[in-house]
Amino acid sequence: MPINRINPSTAMRSASLKFYLICLLVICVIGWSAGAPSPQLSRKELEDRYRQKPPVPDERDADAELDSAYDRNTRRP
Amino acid sequence: MTALGLVLLSMMGYSQHMQQANLGDGVATARLLSRSDWGARLPKSVEHFQGPAPYVIIHHSYMPAVCYSTPDCMKSMRDMQDFHQLERGWNDIGYSFGIGGDGMIYTGRGFNVIGAHAPKYNDKSVGIVLIGDWRTELPPKQMLDAAKNLIAFGVFKGYIDPAYKLLGHRQVRDTECPGGRLFAEISSWPHFTHINDTEGVSSTTAPVVPHVHPQAAAPQKPHQSPPAAPKV
């Protein structure tokens, strides 16, 4: 009865396949997390946040439709 | 129509202090609605600017879409205020006035109040939003007439400079607002002005930022029922 020996080339292909599958899994996880919508605040949470926020002292450069007062420090120039 | 609009608006005794606009007969009260009429939330802060406004800036809401009944238009005003306050964090609805598809004028911040609708113009302009998406469709006649009447009223009362300049939002900001069709319309109105470099602001000929925002979050609690629509 011939002895079954592990073929080095077969072992190499199996290792490569595992590596590629792991890479693919990582890519999928990253893509999913990037595309996942950030949890939206409920209306009550929005109202609470707004209530706690001080008034905007100067709105002369504001555009309420396109800009956010919450991100005012990061607005584009 | 403009003269009639002036008379009707004058009959209401428009007040800078946003009093209930129930003066005059039923027809008069149908023209201009106060903040309390549409159920506005109180502003966090109010800051005024001096003198008649030298600019009138026209906007479209894009969303909410056009409304044709007064209760729906009241809700649209509340939705816009919710978006500007709760989601964007500003002190109040950014516009001075809103115009509904019902032909009514809805008081936003009002005259001589610094707005939040057009950077660098907020302390010298009246911002008027025509509720709806006017990129490809022209607003109905009653909306256009109401906007013209409001401007004429502002001039008559001294809130708007008689030599005012009429602008579209896209002329002062990189945006599609007030929509191509409406912008084409106001371009033919009296006092429409092309801004050039000599005035310090370049006009935008190719806006690249669509005027799009998500629908305001659905309320967890029902609003108190809006006041009955004014008799027309």
Automatic annotation (TrEMBL), chain A:
Residue numbers spanned by region Disordered: 36-77
Record flagged with keyword Magnesium: no
Cellular component annotations (GO), alphabetically ordered: extracellular space
Basic and acidic residues bias (residue ranges): 42-59
Alphabetical keyword list: Signal
Domain of life: Eukaryota
Name the record gives this protein: BG642312, isoform A
Organism: Drosophila melanogaster (Fruit fly)
Gene that encodes it: BG642312
